[in-house]
Amino acid sequence: MAARHTFFLVSSTSQRIFSLGARLRYVRRGVHTAACLLKKDSGRKTDSSDGEVDPRLVAAAKDVASSLGGGERVESALLQQLRRHEDTTSAAKSAVTPAETSADNSSLGDLISGLRVVQGQKTNRNATRGNRSEVKNFRQEFQQTRQTQPRSEQVFRKERRSLFEGKRLGIFMQEEVNSWEPDAPTLWDEEQKAELEAQVDRPPRNGFEEMIQWTKEGKMWTFPIQNDQGLEEEAAVGFHEHVFLEDLLEGFPEKGPIRHFMELVVTGLSKNPYLTLQQKRDHVDWFKNYFQETEPILRASGSLTA
Amino acid sequence: MESPERERLWWNAGSMRTQTDKITSGGKRVSCYEAVPHRCACRIILRSRISRVQSDARDGDDADRLFNSLAEPSARNYCSLIKGLVKDPTSVDYNFIDDPYLIPRTTMQYKWFSLAKESGQKAAEFFINRNPQYFQQEFAEPPIEAFLPKTSTFLIEEPCEEALQERMSRKALKAATEMYFQIVDGGGTVSQDMTDDLLDLLCFHGSKDPVQEANLLSPEEQEYEAADQAFRTYNEMQQKGLRADASTYNALIKSVKEVRDRYEERWDLVQQLLNQMRLEKIRPTLQTFNATLRSIRFCGMTGRKSCLDVLREMAHLGIEPSLATYNHIMSIFNPSNSPPSQMLYQIMDEVEGKEFTIQDQDDSRFFVDAMNMCLRMNDVELAYRLHKLQETGENWRLLGDAYIQSVYYGKFLNLICQMEGGEEMWKWYRNLVPSVYYPNVPSILNILKSLEVSNMHHKVTDLWEDIRSLQHFNKQELVEAVLEFMAREKQSPEIQLLFMPVVQNIKDNIEFYYKATAPARRATLSWSSESLSNLLVLFLRAGQLKKASEMLPLFKEYTKTPRAEAMEEYLAVCVEAKDKAKAKAGLSVAVHCGLPKIVEYAENLKSAMTEIKQSEIDAILKEELGVGAEEVKTNQ
């Protein structure tokens, strides 16, 4: 369980302090529990005289403490943390096994408090080399993704472009491809497209989608409502053709009951908005036909004269 | 003045929701076809669990705003209305809103009920088309074709090309082939195009093609796994100098893995085919490149090197990659036997925020494969991004059928259980279940684990309700896990009391199954020593000593051994309650089951409860041991 780790923070001094301060809540609790867990020596103080903290860091810590408003406690906690880092770095530098030292407590405390591992710090590269195997083991054991993510983001922001940048297959050239005619879609292609569409066709998710579907199928009025929906051919026929139907009376006798009757028929038809023009003409034609067929009977009854 | 013949469906604005008095547009007529059910206005009030399902109650607020905007002519765009509607996680699918009894509770029910609805519609259509003479009256003017029976007779009867065309356009394959043979037998000729179209239709829909033509297109053979034959036909075509089209090449490229075995050979063949396309001046399409990538999946490391080259070729030609492309690339870079690569991050960066349509049959595998990858990489943030992508625009349609969707959501929830805390997980759980996902037993076990880690034991009542409605209440593993979850640690008294309904329900369930007569049913759920011990402990902790003592005979009856800690807890509670009879019962069970620390228990009891005399204890011991001895004797 005694894993030896070295934790470093990237970036400048004050940023270091501030990021420490930001995690102060976790750090403090984490440190406390870690210390309790590893309590070999209950009264032990962790500020050893081994690690000397940079006076600039100390001053910065004081600034942070005052800005956070925590006062003495904040400042002392920050300084403790910094000293702990100094301990571990110095211990690693000197390659002394920090098994019993406070570094062990501290590293585990840092572990639990969730500080990040960031590699590549130049100053302590020698130290990391020695501990690399342990670092790897740690990774595999705990598998904290928060640690892999910043790495991936950094590394792959520069690789992101490379998904589309780089060498091509080199078989097709854009200019000549564009000059080729695409084949006309065969029935096969259409069938395939229809099959794909069928896969994506889902039942409507709400009343609106259902209404859209019905409108497409023709079961619903389209909005805004046109009363002539579905009767577009009729719209092309002018009203005068519906109303002025006198020329349809041409084949009929000039006088007599038949004429009278047909005039009434034509008047009625001209007022009828429900029949198409063709239907009206058919209507009149039917009468014409009928009267021609029954001509002998009409003559006999006297309705037709001449 | 409305003509009665002019009736159609009026948009019954009044049926949409109750606050429609403000609606000015649209009438309130209900046509004779459809009494629009007040589905959107009905509240489903059943048990407390189902009362969460308030159909369109959420939608009500959105729709109200939208309806008011309908008065302005500029806002009359259905699509923009719909995009404003947010999915309501507490309601069911729109299909099932009518009847609360028919709201599906498990995946199987979901499938049955949706299919039932569809099949009902088909049955009605079938009936109408079978008896068209009864459905001739046209209620609407002009008539609505959708409601009239479909004519099964064709207009043109004599053998001629138009007749063939008509039959093909109606996709009446049998009639079309018959017509074709009629023409040919009658001595007429059919144009090449027509024949090709007929062949396409036949091959696509899978019937045997009796006619062999010179330029038979090989994709048809592809579909039916005759890869060798397809390549042979292709070679013939090449020899005869016939030009194949793009879909032929696509199909050939797809089936390369069938005809070649080694990675290099496969990749070489693919490249040959692509070069051939260039020579014949056939324009490559998205499907070409997708087919190439699909074959590269089977080309091992050789293919992997060239995978991104293909992608860049596509980009160079201006072809926009589809989700299938990205799916193939992701799979190529993440073979199952090696640790996951970072390719998915790059792909997500590229794909985020875009809307896709279906262009390739592998598109619907993208989301589930990507979620699988997130699970392998244990990256929940990436999973959230993926989920967001799926919610963009119409991308949700590309999630696939019900089975693939359930796999996707299962993996998603699994990942959240593993990586996120209990609170977050519960939020997602409430979001997804049961509106889009019906968890299976392993999922629920994960959820239990996550709840346990976060000490959210009070959620067990809600979870048990869900388990019951999902019909998982009789799964042995799950029941034991739930009992373990409740009993592992001693909780605060309020929570122990909260457990009681669940505990009682579980006990009743198990007893019910013991009463079942059919042996298969009887074997569904049984007592085990863990479940009995856990129940004992749970009753004790809730302060129900009497119920706990009722558990004791069950140990003897089903010959299960209680856990030592459980027995100790029981005896301690008996001592506290100063209940001599129950203590003695406990001791006798302990002796009967042969727990190791019997003597200790006996001593403790004697010292703690002065009413118990040594003689009584001796009696118990004698009885139990005597019984034991007798059993031993009889066995001998």
UniProtKB/TrEMBL annotation, chain A:
GO cellular component, one term: mitochondrial small ribosomal subunit
Keywords: Mitochondrion, Ribonucleoprotein, Ribosomal protein, Transit peptide
Region spans: Disordered: 83-108
Bias (Polar residues) ranges: 99-108
MF terms in GO: structural constituent of ribosome
Top-level taxon of origin: Eukaryota
Locations listed in the record: Mitochondrion
Pfam families given in the database record: MRP-S31
Keyword Mitochondrion: yes
Signal peptide from the UniProt entry: none
InterPro entries to which the protein is assigned, alphabetical: MRP-S31 (IPR026299)
Family listed: Belongs to the mitochondrion-specific ribosomal protein mS31 family.
Protein name: Small ribosomal subunit protein mS31
UniProtKB/TrEMBL annotation, chain B:
Record-linked InterPro entries: PPR_rpt, PTCD3, Rib_mS39_PPR, TPR-like_helical_dom_sf
Top-level taxon in the UniProt lineage: Eukaryota
GO molecular function: ribosomal small subunit binding; rRNA binding
Keyword rRNA-binding: yes
Claim: Ubl conjugation is one of the keywords in the record: no
Gene Ontology CC annotations of this record: mitochondrion; ribonucleoprotein complex; ribosome
Keyword terms, alphabetized: Mitochondrion, Repeat, Ribonucleoprotein, Ribosomal protein, RNA-binding, rRNA-binding, Transit peptide, Translation regulation
GO biological process, one term: regulation of translation
Gene3D superfamilies reported in the protein's UniProt record: Tetratricopeptide repeat domain
Family: Belongs to the mitochondrion-specific ribosomal protein mS39 family.
Protein's recorded name: Small ribosomal subunit protein mS39
